[in-house]
Specification:
This protein is α/β, with parallel strands linked by helices. Helix content is 24%, strand content 35%. The strands form 3 sheets. Strands 5, 6, 8, 9, 11, 12, 14, 16, 17, 19, 21 and 23 form a 12-stranded mixed beta sheet that branches. It has a 10-stranded mixed beta sheet with strand order 4-3-7-10-13-15-18-20-22-24, covered by helices on one side. The protein is globular, with a radius of gyration of 22 Å. The N terminus is likely disordered.
């Protein structure tokens, strides 16, 4: 019998996410990395030989690649401490009623069914290593839209998966991309046919429940010519004494004239390493938007990228990071201009408090064939106290004379004059600080649907508790 910790009637603040579910896992790998674990995962999933070969090649690359020597110091990470696969249910259900009660209760506490009812849209939920539930409106299926977990995609759409996997993020792109390629499990596969407009966002929710788990979701999104799709994900985990590892890879393919948006609100607990590689290839006349919110995890390294491959392609990255005590974010964005008349806009907002540290690491590269390229980078940091820290590491490589590149960065503190003015109107110091921060983050928040904007504001208020006064 499953047991839920904490009282369901006493949910408030961060407690909504900081609970665990006792699950009788149908399978749990041993701790640590090895070929035996990779083979076991592939066997349990019933994968074709080509996927096992893919995993084993990636494992070999992982062992050969060095740890990154820049960004956050990862020397304390021990790859042997993690469990690389846990199966919570025998299969992914298509009906919410068929999901086991213990897992269903977990996601009901997190608001996933409520989100599905509000949007009447596709929802996928992942508990630890695998998807436990996925749903898609029948009318979308009739239009040829595919929205399934990646394990289902390998079984039912293997040719498509094989055609696209690791063509945007190669196995050897970085050590953690190789790790994901060897141990990937779960994640989403989305295909939108030419000219189809998915009017309502597809949603996914990723939950780390087990202690010392490595979660390695793999997501592939293909927006075919002239189509439109918006994918949104949320991430949470309870606080444990041992660290967990989240290493995702997201590959997005935006075909000619199509539009894709990928929105993340990440609220992992502070004992999670969040090391993610996410990249989009954007064809002629197409556009890609990354909307990236980071409030959780102890360590984050994440750099959403747009590769502007076709003439007139457009890419935009809008991100926020709120680093509190014992949090270090090294995040940013990449824009690679390969074709004429391409445009990129990168807007980064970061807030640091206590001993929190947030860093922006950006790359803008303009290739020799990208005549008429335009790029604008705006990086704003807000420090809430003397102990907090913000860093900016811009890198610009221009190989084409006919290009317009702009970069600006600011670091500021909450103005005493602004606080005094708002407090003179009857607000407390915390209320005044919250208004100033909301104004600072307004460009990001206005891009979110109403329910997500409300949730983000609530999470920011939790981060702000005790920051002033």
């Amino acid at each position: 019998m499953a047991e839920q910790h904490d009282d369901l009637r006493d949910l408030k603040g961060q407690e909504q996410y900081d609970f665990t579910t006792e699950i009788e896992y149908t399978h749990r790998s041993r701790r640590g990395i090895g070929e035996d674990v990779v083979r076991d995962i592939s066997r349990l999933k019933g994968e074709p030989e080509w996927m096992l070969d893919f995993r084993l090649r990636a494992l070999d690359v992982f062992f050969k690649m060095p740890m990154p020597t820049w960004g956050v110091d990862l020397n304390a990470m021990d790859f042997e401490q993690f469990y690389y696969f846990m199966r919570a249910t025998p299969r992914s259900e298509r009906s919410w009623d068929d999901v086991p009660d213990d897992i269903k209760n977990t996601f009901e506490r997190l608001g996933v069914p409520e989100a599905e009812r509000k949007y009447l849209a596709g929802v996928e939920t992942q508990m630890d290593s695998e998807s436990v539930y996925s749903s898609l409106k029948e009318e979308w299926e009739r239009h040829g839209i595919i929205f399934v977990d990646m394990d289902t995609a390998v079984r039912e759409h293997g040719d498509l998966v094989r055609e696209y996997i690791s063509t945007c993020v190669p196995i050897g792109d970085n050590k953690f991309a190789a790790l994901n390629s060897a141990f990937w499990s779960g994640g989403s596969f989305v295909y939108v046919p030419p000219g189809v407009d998915v009017e309502i966002p597809l949603q996914a929710y990723f939950r780390i429940n087990a202690e010392a788990l490595g979660q390695f979701e793999r997501t592939i999104i293909i927006a075919d010519e002239g189509s439109n799709v918006h994918y949104m994900e949320g991430c949470t985990a309870p606080q444990y004494t041992e660290w967990a590892l989240h290493t995702g890879v997201i590959e997005i393919f935006v075909k000619a004239g199509a539009h894709a948006r990928y929105t993340t609100i990440q609220n992992w607990s502070r004992n999670v390493y969040n090391l993610v590689t996410q990249r989009a290839i954007v064809e002629a006349g197409a556009s890609m938007e990354w909307v990236d919110g980071n409030l959780g995890s102890g360590i984050t390294m994440k750099y959403p990228a747009v590769v502007l491959k076709g003439a007139g392609a457009r890419g935009e990255v809008l991100s926020i990071a709120f680093a509190g005590d014992d949090q270090h974010y090294d995040a940013g964005a990449k824009a690679i201009h390969l074709a004429p008349d391409t445009t990129s806009i990168i807007t980064s907002k970061s807030i640091s408090k206590g001993n929190g540290r947030s860093g922006f690491r950006g790359l803008v590269k303009v290739g020799p064939k990208a005549a008429g390229a335009q790029s604008k980078v705006v990086c704003d940091a807000l420090l809430l106290d003397p102990a907090s820290r913000s860093d900016t590491y811009p890198y610009i490589d221009v190989q084409q004379d006919d290009a317009q590149i702009e970069h600006e960065a600011t670091v500021s503190k909450i103005s005493e004059d602004q606080l005094f003015y708002l407090m003179s109107r009857g607000l407390t110091e915390e209320q005044a600080a919250a208004i100033i921060i909301n104004g600072f983050l307004e460009p990001f928040v206005k891009e979110l649907p109403m329910e997500y904007a409300v949730e983000l504001n609530r999470l920011i208020q939790l981060q702000m508790e005790g920051s002033v006064g």
